[in-house]
Amino acid sequence: MKINNSNKKLISLKRQPFVLLIISSISFLLILFRLIFLQLLNYESFKKMSDENRIRLIASQPIRGRIIDKNGYVLADSRVKYSLIVKPQSVKVRNWVKHKLRIADLLNLDKNVIQTKYSDGLQKQKLSVTILDDLSVDQLIKFKENEENLFSFEIATKLIRNYPYKSVAAHVIGYTQPVTDTEYKFLSKRGYKLNDLIGRTGIEYVFEDSIRGEWGGEMIEVNSLGKFQKSLGVKPSIQGNDIQLTIDINLQLVAEEVLKDKKAGAIVVMDPRDGAIRAMASKPTFDLNFFSKDFKPEKEYNKIFNSPEKPLFNRALNAYDPGSVWKIVTALAGLESGIFPSNTLLETKPCITYGSQCFREHNDLGFGVIGYEDALRVSSNTFFYQIGHGVGVDKINEVSRKLGFSDLSGIEISEQENKGLVASSKWAREGRGWGEPGRTPWVPEDIASMSIGQFVVQVTPMQIARAYAAVANGGYLVTPYLAKKNKEPIKLDIDPNNIQLIKRGLRKVVESGTGVSINYGVSNLPPVSGKTGTAEDGEGGSDHAWFVCFTPSEKSELLVVAFAQNTPGGGSVHALPMAREILKVWNEKN
């Protein structure tokens, strides 16, 4: 049976509503699923994207905490830098030309430059444009006096790091620099902004988390075209914590002063009872305010970073040949070994031969038959050659490690510190740090050099300070600190009677030996104990000059290490007068 065309059309017309219903239903379901996806499943994500398009944050920089000395004097703080800005989108056009001409005339600016910056900011929809950076005091006052007629413009503030004493204690305080693009990728998770300041060295680096503070800012709403609509609220920035140091600015200033006529050197002033650092100076030094400049002149940059004098190098924590100030270590090794007890008497000579070389006495005569105390008093070389040869390299190394050598001191700014070197037979067998194992054995000449602190011994002024503090305080190894004491002194595994013998010898140095001039020109100074040192430079330069002292000799309160790098003439001539000036200031203040 055939269906005619009219019947086919009738059937087709009857099916159309059903097809339309299916299509409409599918379309509705698709829309419904899309709405569910947008409104329920991804609501938070799309809301965040919407808010990011609608809301802007004008960040407010936190005030970085101050660094102050033990008496409250400010060593580092934040200075406000004032900039003239305009917010292009908020300016009323009818006022712009009038205000532009007024500000140009008032602050002696080029009106065309002002217009260019304004137009560029308007075109790029910038919320803020800087017209003049870092206003002078006069410019700031002029603006404030005419502010009511210049409401198209505003004063923006930016905090920069400020160091009132410039180069004083530069290696201790350290400096800050802006966060780089590379650093920002991971530091942004810790709340840092691009070009935010971060501590690079010293206390600024060590206490970064405490001192930096937290950013705040103002949330503003803009429309779809990026136009300002309203403020949504302000979150104040949080100021960073102040850091109080153990540094005494009075002693720090004199430490810097006594280094001025030296080519290079270092001063460490410590309380030998607990390790508190009262002053630490290193020369050459540098002006910390250089790092706060937006533009750094090439000449100044090269003087700091590319100078052969290495001003960034902290010489108080770098290792040098110690010379005769090392002799207390050799003396303690002899006493602790039992081979050379406290009543030992040795004949000193013009020179003593070890290997192929005759090692001389510094006066080329000798001092006759003497014991430990007089050997320290006159700083006899041949006495300590014999002690060192008798006990051997490894006993000297063992005692030196008890006194804190060949290790970091524990001071907070350890990123600047060198462990130094104290030789051992194992060190020699293994290649001395530069040769092949088994090819650089210990030789007889080494023990003579080691006994008086030459060539195979490299120590830092800070390590010397710790060792002498252990003598001054009766046998306790202190951990030096600049801000927070984190370790109690450690009782040394050294016979206290041996410590006392060394202490008596150091007192004789000042009473009638190589350090007697410490009292010249000083009145009412408590009894001082100390040791002079003159060291050949293992790198081939001129001799180094050393002097270490502590006062009062009993129940000591202050210890000074004075080091003049490549300053020939002797420790008593160059280093001792440096220490004397520090003792004078300390004595006057106390």
Low-confidence residue ranges: none
Overall pLDDT metric: 90
Let me know the largest β-sheet: 5 strands, mixed
* Class from secondary-structure proportions: alpha+beta
The level of helicity is 25-40%
| CATH homologous superfamily caption of the largest domain | DD-peptidase/beta-lactamase superfamily
* Euclidean distance between termini CA atoms: 129 Å
Given the C-alpha coordinates, what overall shape results? elongated
How many separate domains?
Answer: 2
Summed up, what is this model?
The chain has 590 residues and is an alpha+beta fold. The strands form eight sheets. Strands 2, 3, 4, 5 and 10 form a five-stranded mixed sheet that branches. A five-stranded antiparallel sheet has the order 12-11-23-22-21, with helices on both faces. Strands 1-8-9 form a three-stranded antiparallel sheet. The longest helix is centred in the N-terminal third of the chain and has 37 residues, at 5-41.
SSE order and pairing:
Layout: H1 5-41, H2 43-54, E1 55-60, E2 67-68, E3 74-86, H3 93-106, H4 111-123, E4 129-132, H5 137-145, E5 153-162, H6 170-173, E6 176-178, H7 181-187, E7 197-199, H8 202-206, H9 208-211, E8 216-222, E9 228-235, E10 243-244, H10 249-258, E11 264-270, E12 277-283, H11 298-305, H12 327-337, E13 346-348, E14 351-354, E15 357-360, E16 368-370, H13 372-378, H14 381-391, H15 393-402, E17 421-422, H16 425-429, H17 444-451, E18 457-458, H18 461-472, E19 476-477, E20 490-491, H19 496-512, E21 529-535, E22 544-551, E23 558-565, H20 571-589
Parallel strand pairs: 2-10
Antiparallel strand pairs: 1-8, 2-3, 3-4, 3-5, 6-7, 8-9, 11-12, 11-23, 13-16, 14-15, 17-18, 19-20, 21-22, 22-23
